[in-house]
Amino acid sequence: MKKSNFAYLFIIVVFIVSPINAQDLLEKLDKEFPDVPNYVLATFKGNRITFGQSVETRKKGVLEINAHTKFWNIPNSNTQAFGADRVTARFGFDYAISDRFTTGFGVATFDGIFNGLAKYRLVRQKNSGKKAPIGITLFQSVSYQSRSFNHIDLPNTFARRLSFTTQVILARKFDSNFSFQLTPTFIRRNSNQFEDSPNNHFALGFGARYKVGRHVSIASEYYYVANPVEDNSVDDHLNFFNPFAIGVNWEVSDLILQFSLTNTRNFDEATNITKTFNNFNFNDGNLHIGVSAIYVFHLNKKRK
C-alpha cells in the first residue's frame, strides 16, 4: 500500500514539474532563436515602375543615380526620322537616410522642371509572425516649372509655379514573379493655366511587374485621372489623356536598364499624370520611346 502511494505521489510530481521545465526550455529557445520577421524583398526593383513611383525605398546609405530620356516624332512630313525628332531628359538622385526614408532631387531639360521628393515606408509586406499582406509607402513631391512649353504661359510668381503630389502607394508581391500596385494620388497646382480647369486633381494609378527571366522583367503603369485638366480655348486647343507605359527591365546587380513605350514625355509626377497631351498610339508622334539607366552606390560599406 505504501508503494502504491509512493507511485501516485511520483506521478503527481512529474505532471507538475514537467510543464515548468518545458516552459523554461521554450523560453530559452525563444531567446536563442528569436522570431525574425520574414519581410518580402524586391516587390519592384527600383524606386520607379516606369514613369511613376513604386513602393520601394532603398536601404540606409544607398545613393541611387538615375538618368531618363525620351524620344519622339513630331507630326511633320519633312521630319519622319522615327524617335529622333525630339528628345528630353531628366537627371536625378535618390538617397536613403534610413531603411524606411528616402529623399531625392532631379531636373528635366524639356520643360525645365525641378522637383524634390520624399518617401517613407510605412508598412513592409511580411509573410511570418504578424503578417502584413501588403506594403504601404507614403510619397510627397514638390515641382517647380521654370519655363513654358506647348504654348502654356507661366505665372509670374515663384509660388504659383509650384505643384505638389501626394500619394499613398499600396503594393503586394504575390509570388517570386508577379507584383501589383495601386496608387491613390492627389495633385495640387498653385496656378490654373486654363480657364475652368481645376487646381486640385485626383487620380488612381495601377502598376505591375512580371519577371520573365533571371535578369529580365516586364513593367507597366497606367493612371486614371478623375478630373483632368480642361482646355476650353478656341485657338490652340489642347487635349489631355491618361498616361500609360509598358517597358522591359534588364536588372543586373546594381544596374537597371529600362526600355519603354509611353505617351507621356515629362518626368515629374504632377505633369506626367495631369498633362499628357498624346494618346497611346502610333499616330502623329503620339508614341514616345523611353530609355532609363539606374545605378546604386552603397555608401555605407559596413552594412550587410
* Number of individual domains: 2
C-alpha Rg, in Å?
27 Å
Number of strands: 12
Give the percentage of residues in beta strands.
35-45%
The CATH topology of the largest domain, please?
Porin
Number of helices: 2
Ends apart, CA distance between termini: 68 Å
Q: Let me know the CATH homologous superfamily of the largest domain.
A: monomeric porin ompg
Order of helices and strands: HEEEEEEEEEEEHE
- What share of residues is helical? 10-25%
Looking across the biggest beta sheet, what order are the strands in?
1-2-3-4-5-6-7-8-9-10-11-12
Which parts are unreliable, with pLDDT below 50 for 5 consecutive residues or more? none
| CATH architecture heading of the largest domain | Beta Barrel
Describe this structure as you would to a colleague.
The protein has 304 residues and is mostly beta strands. It has two domains: 1-34; 62-298, monomeric porin ompg (Porin, Beta Barrel). The protein has helices at 2-32, 269-274; strands spanning 62-72, 86-96, 101-108, 113-123, 135-145, 162-173, 178-189, 200-211, 216-225, 244-252, 255-262, 288-298. The chain has a twelve-stranded antiparallel barrel with strand order 1-2-3-4-5-6-7-8-9-10-11-12. The longest helix is centred in the first third of the chain and has 31 residues, at 2-32. It is elongated and about 105 Å long. The mean pLDDT is 85.
